[in-house]
């Protein structure tokens, strides 16, 4: 599809350039292609039993792939800019392409930088300090505020899916640090009072997941909340569960 670059000069005679509503130059052509794609896909389904069905199906697939490839740099640029005005238009286009989930995952993957910085700011020089108070006050509490703000920010383009996107941001903040968290827990567990410290960490994490679900109005058993719970509780604390199961007298 002929989708102009973000910085394409305005050219009223060619129809390429900034739209009258302030849309980026690429938006009107891309939206026109998406409309054409929707019409082609609908026709392909209706005519599926008629001759040349494979050709029609291939034409739809090719057009979808071409539009996705043309939009990919626009999405990357918008995500690099954060809460960008282009995201609502891109969200509509990606939904028409059946790629709404891919857009939401791409957005979430770009957002948790501050949370990870806070996590790794606690260095080995603090290993003698209890872990739970730091975890609750300096990591989980700010993360919850980040996620609440994220739900408001992405509502402009994600609509009813804003809570699920914010939960994805939370998951992507904690999932990559799970090995580091497990190491910190192991270190804490070897200190006097370490078992109680680790138990307090687990309680703080479980409370965070519950508060997250409440803040985002998610059911506690919603997949989005459970994904955060697994990343924050299930994986980091798994070695403790394995040790307990391997202990003499543990049930099989």
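Q: What amino acid sequence fits the structure above?
A:
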């Amino acid at each position: 599809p002929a989708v102009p670059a973000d910085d394409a000069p305005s050219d009223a005679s060619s129809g390429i350039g900034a739209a009258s509503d302030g849309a980026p130059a690429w938006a009107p052509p891309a939206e026109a292609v998406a409309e054409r794609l929707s019409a082609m896909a609908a026709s392909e389904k209706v005519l599926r039993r008629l001759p040349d069905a494979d050709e029609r199906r291939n034409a739809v697939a090719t057009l979808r792939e071409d539009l996705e490839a043309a939009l990919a740099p626009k999405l990357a640029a918008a995500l690099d800019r954060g809460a960008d005005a282009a995201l609502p238009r891109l969200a509509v286009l990606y939904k028409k392409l059946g790629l709404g989930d891919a857009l939401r995952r791409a957005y979430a993957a770009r957002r948790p930088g501050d949370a990870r910085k806070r996590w790794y700011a606690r260095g080995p020089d603090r290993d003698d300090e209890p872990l739970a108070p730091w975890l609750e006050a300096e990591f989980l509490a700010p993360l919850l505020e980040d996620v609440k703000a994220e739900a408001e920010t992405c509502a402009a383009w994600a609509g009813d899916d804003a809570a699920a996107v914010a939960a994805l941001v939370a998951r992507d903040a904690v999932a990559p640090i799970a090995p580091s968290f497990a190491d910190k827990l192991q270190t804490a567990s070897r200190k006097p009072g370490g078992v109680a410290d680790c138990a307090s960490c687990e309680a703080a994490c479980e409370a965070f997941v519950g508060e997250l679900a409440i803040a985002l109005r998610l059911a506690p058993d919603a997949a989005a909340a459970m994904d955060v719970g697994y990343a924050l509780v299930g994986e980091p604390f798994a070695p403790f569960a394995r040790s307990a199961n391997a202990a003499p007298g543990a049930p099989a």
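Q: And what stands out in the fold?
A: Confidence is low (pLDDT under 50) at residues 7-20, 244-252.
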